[in-house]
Amino acid sequence: MVAAYEEGPSVSSQKYASLRYTALRFGLLIASFAVVWVLCWARVVPLGIGSSNIFWMVLLALVISAPLSWVLLRKQRDAMAEQVAERVDRTKARITANAGQED
Questions:
Q1: How would you class 65 by CB atoms within 10 Å of its CB: exposed for 0-12, middle for 13-18, buried for 19 or more?
Q2: Average pLDDT over every residue of 43-65
Q3: What is the three-class DSSP state of 40?
């Protein structure tokens, strides 16, 4: 019996890796902001000084979402890095080919 072969990530999953990572990162920021908003509304977290409430909440959400994205979005970040590296390699090859034609 022939075993099914395993492929690497499909082309379609690599095609939108940057967009997927960015969307997930933004979603994580929105979720963190929602948690911070609830904590501020419940007076668990200080509201800030004067009218700095929204700025404080966004800053706190950014601080919370950064380490979470580092851990939770590792696979998506690696796929995006691979996509960027492939683009850089193609661009370098094109530049080298164009430089060879000019000589």
A1: buried
A2: 82
A3: helix
